[in-house]
Design brief:
219 residues, alpha+beta, SH3 type barrels, 8 strands
């Protein structure tokens, strides 16, 4: 009896565990959750998943498990359709939640209502690079200035890795020098002094640059 109850609890937690793992892969957390926090998160996801499933099936969530146990006859019944629906919900739910969190939609509304000034992302470093769609000028501690498109960037300012595509060095006369490189990776050892974000325009956006490369010359 205790084994069947433990198995039922495990089955109840499986959708939440799947959702928790998927969410962890899609968002950057301020800190890694401990084991207790992971269990709580899985429980919350399981409750949401079974609540949505109950709306779909019009059944009590406790009776909507894909595997049911008959303790009187010691039999186990497997229902494939509820199992597939629960798996689908456990995958879609964290994807939608990750999109909301990465886009900062929920806290953007809260900031609009003056309920908070926080964002949902892990750091200001991540916030700025995620939202600013423009070329950047990076000045290093030795005075070197590099302009480029920030294709990749680290999650936290404690490890300021930054990859610039199509980089150009800026000399003392503010002239751009072409290094003939596809990109340059700036590492923490190079010690970033500050980062300037250029004003987005039709001449310096990434999409316009790519479109201009793909255009064929007219006859």
């Amino acid at each position: 009896m205790y084994t069947l109850q433990a198995l039922q609890i495990l089955i109840f937690l499986i959708p939440g565990l799947i959702s928790s793992v998927i969410l962890g892969m899609l968002i950057v957390r301020r800190k890694e959750p401990n084991e207790f926090e992971k269990i709580v998160e899985a429980l919350i996801f399981s409750m949401l998943t079974y609540a949505l499933f109950a709306i779909y099936s019009s059944k009590n969530p406790s009776n909507s498990n894909p595997i049911t146990f008959d303790q009187t006859n010691n039999t186990v019944a497997f229902r494939p359709l509820p199992f597939l629906i629960l798996i689908m919900l456990s995958v879609l739910l964290p994807i939608i939640l990750a999109w909301i969190m990465n886009s900062d939609l929920h806290l953007r509304l809260a900031r609009l209502l003056r309920m908070t000034k926080r964002t949902s992302r892990a750091s200001v470093w991540y916030d700025v690079f995620y939202d600013c769609n423009s070329y950047v000028v990076v000045e290093l501690a030795d005075g070197t200035r590099i302009c480029g498109w920030p294709t990749h960037f680290s999650d936290y300012p404690s490890e300021p890795y930054l990859y610039l595509e199509n980089p150009k060095f800026i000399d003392e006369n503010n002239q751009y020098v072409e290094p003939n490189l596809n990109g340059i990776l700036i590492t923490p050892e190079m010690k970033i002094h500050f980062v300037e974000f250029t004003i987005p325009s039709s001449s310096n956006t990434k999409e316009k640059t790519h479109d201009s490369r793909k255009r064929k010359p007219k006859d």
